[in-house]
Amino acid sequence: MPRRSILLYPDPRLRMPSAPVDDFDADLASLVQDLVDTLHGTATGIGISAPQVGDLRRVLVMDLTNDRNGPEVYVNPEILSRSTPGLVEESCLSIPGVVGNVVRSTELRVRALDRHGAPFERALTGMHAVCLQHELDHLDGKLFIDRLSLLRRIGFRLKRALGAAS
Ligand code: NI
């Protein structure tokens, strides 16, 4: 199955909100499979969202298994409840070379549809919960760098302006 190329910051499509999925058709099935393949094609990625491959549908995929053979698909995900905020280190496939600390809930409950349109609910903790929030942000056109402290954001812009960011 084909891997798709991952859009890189500051591609304007990363800033656009994605639309809910209504059609669980063959086109959605290939998007889901391509997202899984694209994620597994990266060296260290644990999650990817449809807008990162230029498709503005509310779909995200995560795989936090060690041998990367347990992809989870979330279509139209919604966070039902969250608790226990903590400071966690994040990076993003669309912003290579940048790592930063972000405040995220480390426990949450999510509702979504699977790739066939069947609803499910799941409790997530730790990196699982953090990853879901990061990918859900992508569906709203938000990036983790938006959540960095002001000082860190200024440093990031400065680095880019000086051409130091890779
Ligand atoms: Ni990301």
Brief digest:
Helix content is 25%, strand content 28%. It is of the alpha+beta class. The structure holds nickel (II) ion (NI).
What are the SSEs and their pairings?
Elements lengths: L25 H15 L6 E3 L9 E4 L9 E19 L9 E14 L5 E7 H14 L10 H12 L5
Bound molecules: nickel (II) ion.
Nickel (II) ion binds next to helix 2.
Description:
By secondary structure, the chain is an alpha+beta fold. It has a single domain (12-165), classed as Peptide deformylase (Peptide Deformylase, Alpha-Beta Complex). 25% of the residues lie in helices and 28% in strands. It has 3 helices and 5 strands, in the order H-E-E-E-E-E-H-H. The chain has helices at residues 26-40, 126-139, 150-161, and strands at residues 47-49, 59-62, 72-90, 100-113, 119-125. Strands 1-2-3-4-5 form a 5-stranded antiparallel sheet. The longest helix has 15 residues, at 26-40. The model has no long low-confidence stretch (mean pLDDT 93). It binds nickel (II) ion (NI). Nickel (II) ion binds next to helix 2. Nickel (II) ion is lined by residues 92-94, 134, 138.
Provide the descriptors you would attach to this structure in a database record.
166 residues; alpha+beta; five-stranded antiparallel β-sheet; binds nickel (II) ion
Strand order of the largest sheet: 1-2-3-4-5
How many domain regions? 1
> Structural class of the helices, strands and pairings?
alpha+beta
**Total helical segments:** 3
CA-to-CA gap between the ends? Answer: 29 Å
CATH hierarchy: architecture:
Alpha-Beta Complex
Question: Globular, elongated, flat, extended or rod-shaped: what is the shape?
Answer: globular
User: What small molecules accompany the polymer chains?
Assistant: nickel (II) ion
| Total number of strands | 5
Radius of gyration: 16 Å
Written as H for each helix and E for each strand, in order along the chain, the element string is HEEEEEHH
pLDDT averaged over residues: 93
Helix content: 10-25%
What are the low-pLDDT stretches, counting only 5+ consecutive residues below 50?
Answer: none
Indicate the proportion of strand residues.
Answer: 25-35%
**CATH homologous superfamily heading:** Peptide deformylase
For the largest beta-sheet, the strand count, sense and barrel status come to: 5 strands, antiparallel
CATH class designation: Alpha Beta
According to CATH, the fold-level topology is Peptide Deformylase
